[in-house]
Amino acid sequence: MKNQVHSIEVRNAALARLEERGVTIHDIAEIVYEMQAPYHPNLTLEPCIESVKAVLEKREMQHAILVGVELDTLAEKGLLSEPLQTLIAQDEGLFGCDETLAIGSVFAYGSIAVTTFGHLDKYKIGVIKRLDTKLASGRVHTFLDDLVASVAANASSRMAHRLRDEQEAEAARLEALNELQVKKDEEEQAG
User: Fold this and answer.
1) 175: buried, middle or exposed (CB in 10 Å: 19+, 13-18, 0-12)?
2) pLDDT digits (tens, 9 = 90+) for 152-166
């Protein structure tokens, strides 16, 4: 039997790669907050952080981060063969493998994640903008900016669905209380 890499080791490695590249869970959560706050005025940063953490627990996301950051790092060191070295190091506009890897990670979170990823890829919000800036002191983030957008899009979609579930549960609870009150009022009038 082949040696398996334990999932905890993979998770820890993915989180370490983000941290090494200057990306925190808080940075990503701020993007999630910006995406969801217009729809939920009482939203705080804490549930956004929890949603980011939950997305980062997914193996597919961890694997994408490990692959993407590895390619960015190798390009930074000049260790890729040409023309791949130049395509990644310069974040060539027509090189779409970075978006392809990232968008592959959003499909599990549905259409909200897909459209949010597109928005984030276009407008480069928060830490994504810093990573996308080509003057990032010699660092290559060709894959990482899109992967961060993917995590944020997934966490945003996850939150949108959960917040709707919470709203519906609260509405059902209030309706049940109202029905109990009506029944109690009818019993008092009858008896």
Assistant:
1) exposed
2) 999 999 999 888 878
